[in-house]
Design a protein that fits this description.
It is built from 5 helices and 10 strands; from the N terminus they run αββαβαββββαβαββ. It has helices spanning 2-11, 32-46, 62-72, 131-143, 161-167, and strands at residues 13-14, 20-21, 53-57, 76-79, 91-98, 103-110, 119-127, 146-156, 172-180, 187-188. The mean pLDDT is 95. Bound molecules: guanosine-5',3'-tetraphosphate and sodium ion (2 copies). The site of one sodium ion has 4 residues, from strand 7.
Length: 194
């Protein structure tokens, strides 16, 4: 997605060889107009998949997911990372291991929001090692629902998540795929291999 790539180049920073900072428009401050375009892009790609629900993870997955949900005309559910006062009914839970933080945390979704006949589009802001995506897949599987695709805003293609998910035959659509962040330079995978 050209607009997103331009935004990453102009406002993103390679913090290290593995971490991209994009808090100007995605992870802290949010650019609503860019989010609208992201929603349209996901809709165009997944429009023939009969999506009935979008599942994401709080917090940075919510903005792109809501815009995709608006375009596709489906509700958006975000898995919660912290215990909620009101989240107390037949919970679907999964563990997420964070390589960066080297710790395991839990996510939870109320069972009433994911049903067997749902065709779920999983969306997240980043795809690195795929731990968050795998936890969301786990939750969908517990509900007995179908996974129709995985939409990612920024894939760090030099980490293993995207390859592993595609090897498992998930339809992974990433709007920007980063080849490397070496020497402070942000490089995208060439369109030919995308
Ligand atoms: P890891 O595999 O690289 O260790 O990443 P991990 O799953 O532990 O992700 C930890 C958090 O960092 C996630 O957000 C994930 O989206 C984010 N993340 C991973 N790589 C990058 C990156 O290169 N740049 C940025 N900006 N974020 C990255 P989170 O903790 O769930 O936070 P949020 O959704 O509330 O923003
Ligand atoms: Na994040
Ligand atoms: Na995230």
């Amino acid at each position: 997605m050209e607009l997103l790539k331009q935004k990453i180049l102009s406002e993103g920073t390679a913090l290290s060889e593995s971490v991209l900072k994009v808090d100007n428009f995605l992870n802290h401050q949010i650019d609503p107009e860019l989010m609208v375009e992201i929603g349209k892009e996901f809709k165009n790609y997944f429009s023939d998949k009969n999506i009935t629900k979008i599942l994401t993870l709080e917090s940075s997955g919510i903005a792109p997911s809501v815009m995709a949900g608006l375009e596709l005309g489906v509700p958006v559910v975000f898995a919660r990372k912290r215990k909620s006062l009101t989240l107390n009914e037949d919970l679907l839970t999964a563990e997420v291991y964070s390589y960066t933080k080297q710790e395991t945390s839990n996510i939870a979704v109320a069972g009433k929001f994911l049903k067997k006949d749902d065709n779920v589009l999983i969306i997240d802001d980043f795809l690195a090692n795929g731990e968050a995506a795998n936890a969301l897949i786990n939750v969908v599987n517990q509900a007995g629902a179908n996974i129709s695709g995985i939409g990612i805003v920024i894939e760090k293609a030099f980490q293993k998540g995207g390859t592993a998910l595609r090897e498992e035959n998930y339809d992974v659509y990433s709007l920007a795929r980063i080849e490397s962040l070496e020497n402070g330079e942000i490089k995208f995978l060439s369109e030919a291999v995308q």
